[in-house]
Design brief:
Distance between the termini: 22 Å
Mean pLDDT: 91
Largest sheet: none
Number of domains: 1
Low-confidence stretches: none
Structural class: mainly alpha
Oligomer: single chain
Helix content: 40-55%
Strand content: under 5%
Length: about 80
């Protein structure tokens, strides 16, 4: 996998992981402040969620890279199909 493909795969994994991590630990306040949405979390801890997302996406990227490098799954067509 070249650097461009690797970067694209990492970004896709990162955003998918972010959307999975965002709801973790969300607590809605009992009485929201004036002007805030009633569903807005009281302490979203975005920095921690971005750090967790980065670590999980990196681990997933290493798994994808290993699978492609070892040939367990090939993205090339079988010989004779083209």
């Amino acid at each position: 996998m070249n650097w461009f493909t690797g970067s694209a795969v990492y970004l896709i994994l990162w955003f998918l992981t972010l959307f999975a991590v965002l709801p973790w630990g969300v607590h809605v306040p009992d009485e929201p402040e004036t002007g805030h949405a009633s569903s807005a979390p009281s302490n979203p801890r975005i920095g921690l969620k971005i750090l967790i997302t980065t670590v999980i996406a990196a681990a997933l990227w290493f798994v994808v890279d290993w699978v492609l490098a070892t040939g367990l799954i090939s993205l090339r067509p079988p010989p004779g199909e083209w």
